[in-house]
Amino acid sequence: MKLDITSPSPNIGKVVANGVLILIGILFLVPMTWLILASVDGNAGLSVGLSHFTFANFKKVWTWNLVARPLLNGLLISGVTALIVAVFSALCAYPLSRYRLRFGNSFLYTVLFGASLPATAIVIPVYTLFIHFHLVNSILGVIIFEGAGALPYSIWLTKNFMDGVPIDIEEAAWMDGAGTLDSLRRIVLPLVIPGLVAMFVFTFIESWGNFFAPFILLSSPSKFPIAVSIESFFGNRGEVIYGQLAAFSVIYSAPIIILYLLVQRVLSAGFRLEGGIKG
Hints:
Elements: H1 12-39, H2 56-61, H3 64-98, H4 104-116, H5 119-132, H6 139-163, H7 167-175, H8 180-208, H9 212-217, H10 226-229, H11 242-278
């Protein structure tokens, strides 16, 4: 009897990997299903289901102090932080990518070390420094703190994006008399826009979900972002109303989803362009 060695054998590793991915997907799908159903359920509890469809939960949480003002504060803090990080990352990463600096490698390792520092390790000296410069209970102070925390990692990644742009393109512009800033603005930045946009989104999301920094640095409830406002649903204030908490969470997640939908086409088109240039 001969064995058919050409018959395909089952790939056990692939089956196990797909099974793990399906399990992870289910673990994420169940709480998301509960969140959506509970937000429109008048009798929401911890079980997944819909007993009474209503939008009353959204109406109750949509107040100026609980949602509207914190939402605007969060958009201001996260948007300005992400924009500052994107600009300074490009300006810092360009010389690291294009020039042979004497202390370039040491600077990069320092940047990488700075990206690994936890915020809790530096919060006491930072808080003392912010008191000296009157930045405590200031939205500007929160932006500076979050931007400084995100900048090291952003510089490192932006440099990698710029390393992928052939320097031959810039050399042609230099021969035509273009300066360093002109080369960066007209040639390099248009080619690394997908990377910068991805970095902007990443920084925005990190800032949007940051509870620690604004909670420590801000004392006035009128300046709290929405990430801190969610704390109003917990604590010693009685039983949690799950329907209103779910509605608040849906509103809290909406800006991230909208931002992703807005930049998705830009990222797809930009990465296709970058792949064509490399090819």
